Amino acid sequence: MPGTSRMPVSLRNSFTVKKGGSSSQLLSLNIDLFRNIVFFLFLLRWSRKGLLKLKGRGVFGTFADAYIAIRRNLYGLFLRAPGVRSQVQKQVSEAIAKVQAKLVPSGPGIVRYLNLPKEGWSEETVLKELATLAEMDHTRWEDGFVSGAVYHGGDALIKIQTEAFGKFTVANPIHPDVFPGVRKMEAEIVSMVLALFNAPSGAAGVTTSGGTESILMACLSARQKAYAERGVTEPEMILPETGHTAFRKAGSYFGIKVHLVACPAPNYQVDIRSVSRLINSNTVLLVGSAPNFPHGIIDDITALSKLAVKRRIPLHVDCCLGSFLVPFLEKAGFETELFDFRLKGVTSISCDTHKYGFAPKGNSTVLYRDTSLRSYQYFISPDWSGGVYASPSIAGSRPGALIAGCWASLMTVGEAGYIEACSSIVGATKKIISAIEENPGLNNDLEVLGHPLVSVVAFSSKTLDIYDIADAMTAKGWHLNSLQSPPAIHVAVTLPIVKVWEKLVGDLEAVIEGEKEKERVRIVEGKGAKGKSVGDSAALYGVAGSLPNKSVVVELASGFLDTLYKA
Which range among 54-63, 182-191, 460-469 shows the weakest confidence by mean pLDDT? Predict the structure, then answer.
């Protein structure tokens, strides 16, 4: 066209190629930039984790954790090696078979009911079979030979609980309009327990199926609060290593990283300085026990409370075991420590009414300083096609009969009854402690761990294998609790044990003398003082429990759980 300059074809082609090349180069640069950003974020994330680890555990603690992890993984590989694995599996199978032989009865007199009867049984037949089941061979908790486990309030109380069950067998608190009496009793139970723990005005709580659910709900509430108010997406909680394992379960269920803090001798309380070092922007909950299950020690809740207030982090106090004893220690005339809502940092408490509250099994409470904390554990589904659904805790339907049994128990025993029970139970515990510390037949070989104030006394041995002592006590009909880290035994005193604590001490003295006599015989025979431990406790805690990799223990525990459902 006249007056219009045209670019030569060769130049136009050259320009097109260059333009295409520039687009390709730009795309390549963008991809490289994206990769660099991703790598930078990855590096930043893990650098931050590393720095938090160093801050929380220190240089030596970090290297120690790394060493333990490497050792555990290497030992795990060793256990899976050809030849080793088959031997381990053989021993595990033998151990599980032994458990099954003990727990699953067999023989000509045992009848198994694996299908529904074609025709329903008569009342007489059912009651006769129930009586047979109740009298199956078992450790005699009725005679006070079982540590903890059965928190018996007396035959008269059981009779009242049974009456309460009968009146509310079909009741379900998910329908408060259908069962208004259950709603009223549940609210009153929460109110009574809140008052025991000196809750402030505006405090709240719910009943649960047990201590584990109470702890789960407290952890869930703390996680949800941190997410809603601080945007925490990688929650962490700091737990004494002696804290109840339900906190670890909560960590597993709810994706909360658990930091375990040592509770060193001689007081076996959580190390407050270590707790402080571990706190970071992801921390959603601090935990203390009053008392803890293993050793019966009350952590320094006052110090934890000050730390919680200073760092603005919720503090949960686990009183599931202490339940209706710790609130009455002072009134019963015993030494105590502050642990409840009188400390400003305490934001939640778990308390089992089915332990020393003597309520039927399946009853507990979780308490909060205010209603907003409780609301974080609620589940509400506003758009379900079945209607608006709301539940206060894990369960939907719940047994109103258990709530009725709990309410009846609290109202029957009353404050005076609980003070009397506290006096008897804690008094017997202190007598056992005195016997271990002062009796020449015990104090040369046994040592009480820490300074227990409530109903649990734990002791280790300075001279003998404590697990041999545990197995020998089992042979005498006792059902005590074996502990690990450190190796020990504990006794959780209940009302039935109060009646036989002197026999417990006497049998313990006889067992220790028996174990020392075995050592003397072995020395005379030239076999050395220490023999091979062969009992159940020695096998589980002394041998398998000492392995750096706990996979064998996990298999044993899994086999035990499977056995529970073997008909």
Answer: 54-63
CA 429/CA 324 separation, integer angstroms: 15
| Bridge partners, 367 (sequence order) | 205, 349
State the angle between helix axes of 84-103 and 551-564 in degrees (0 to 180), rounded to the nearest 10. Answer: 30
159-377+386-412 shares its CATH topology with 424-547? no
Does pLDDT of 291 surpass 90?
yes
Q: In the predicted model, what is the mean pLDDT of residues 179-194?
A: 98
| CA Rg value for the chain | 30
In whole angstroms, give the CA distance from residue 218 to residue 433: 33
Q: What value does the mean pLDDT take over residues 458-483? A: 94
- Delimit the domains of the chain by residue range: 159-377+386-412, 424-547
DSSP 435-501: HHHH-HHHHTTEEE-S---SSEEEEEESSS-HHHHHHHHHHTT-BPEEETTTTEEEEE--HHHHTTH
pTM here is 0.88
Per-residue model confidence (pLDDT) at position 21 = 57
Any idea what DSSP says for residue 360? P
Q: Which residues pair with 207 in a beta bridge?
A: 365
With H, G, I as helix, E, B as strand and everything else as coil, classify residue 392. Answer: coil
**CA atoms within 13 A of residue 267's CA, in its CB half-sphere:** 7
Average pLDDT over residues 142-155: 90
**Paired strand residues for 204:** 368
Choice among 29-38, 309-318, 503-512, 528-537 with the minimum mean pLDDT: 528-537
- How far, in Å, CA of 365 to CA of 242, rounded? 21
Question: Any idea what the Cα angle at residue 86 is, between residues 82 and 89, rounded to 5°?
Answer: 135
Question: Do residues 205 and 211 touch, judged by C-beta distance below 8 A?
Answer: no
Which residue type sits at 369?
R
Worst-scoring range by mean pLDDT, 109-113, 183-187, 243-247? 109-113
Q: Thinking of the domain 159-377+386-412, which architecture would CATH place it in?
A: 3-Layer(aba) Sandwich (3.40)
* Residue type at 14 in one-letter notation: S
**What CATH architecture does domain 424-547 belong to?**
Alpha-Beta Complex (3.90)
CA distance 237 to 217: 14
Tell me: the pLDDT tens digits for 541-567?
666 666 778 888 888 889 999 999 998
Give the pair of three-digit tokens for residue 506: 């006497």
| Number of helices followed by number of strands (H, E) in the chain | 17, 13
Residue 415 neighbours by CB distance under 10 Å: 14
- Long-range contacts at 539-547 (CB < 8 A, ≥ 24 apart): 539/95, 540/482, 541/467, 541/482, 541/483, 541/484, 541/487, 542/465, 542/467, 542/487, 545/484, 547/75
Q: What would the mean pLDDT of 38-64 be, rounded to a whole number?
A: 76
CA distance 172 to 182: 8
